[in-house]
Specification:
Shape: globular
Number of strands: 8
Strand content: 15-25%
Bound molecules: 2-phosphoglycolic acid
Structural class: alpha/beta
Distance between the termini: 10 Å
Length: 251
Amino acid sequence: MRIPLMAGNWKMNKTVREALDFVAGLKTQLPDTSGVDVVLCPPFTALSDVGRAITGSPFELGAQDLYWEPRGAFTGEISAPMLWDLGCTYAIAGHSERRRVLGETDDAVRRKVAAALASELIPILCVGESLEERDDGRTERILQTQARIGTMDITAEQVGQLVVAYEPVWAIGTGRPATGEEAGRIARLLRQWLHEWFGEPAGGVRILYGGSVTPDNIAEFAGQPDIDGALVGGASLDPATFATLVRASAR
Ligand code: PGA
């Protein structure tokens, strides 16, 4: 059985002080997280302090991005071993904001996924179509390409650790989520493709939905058999709201 995962992607939000206030709040709100894994993805600048603050709690630490080389002359980049060293257990790869605003390619995402796994970090591989791609009827082709290239360098032994987040670009930060049914259909498709590429172990991959998830719509996604949690942006910034989402996702 797959344990649902709720990941809070804070994006470029919160100073260290604000991040620590959040953790204190979340600990009060969520004394028990049985039946769900909870991951906080603060900005790089707060990883160290958040990591210390959640030691001994059930919350885990995730990075919003990583670079694929372990070390070297790559000004401004952060490697998987550095993240592991701070206590990260997850790393997001290929978030649509990085793909679209910062020019990240499918090929770069492929390297990031492989680098994460090589350092014992669980990659959260994000895939999603834009509104234009959707209107042109290209959703499935785009998702299949992103998922295929993103997982190209991993083995059938590794695939069970993978997390894939379906995040339609038109739903992110727009207040216009996909319906549970739509997201569930895409999750099922993603699982079928993973099964074709990796065989049986693909059944262990956790598939998340992301894009305008709130306490009002979380039940729709949590109720889908192929959706195993959510990657949450805006609604993960407040401890009470995020705690509500976590509780609604426990199985
Ligand atoms: P949102 O962001 O929940 O604010 O729409 C989701 C994401 O980008 O992961």
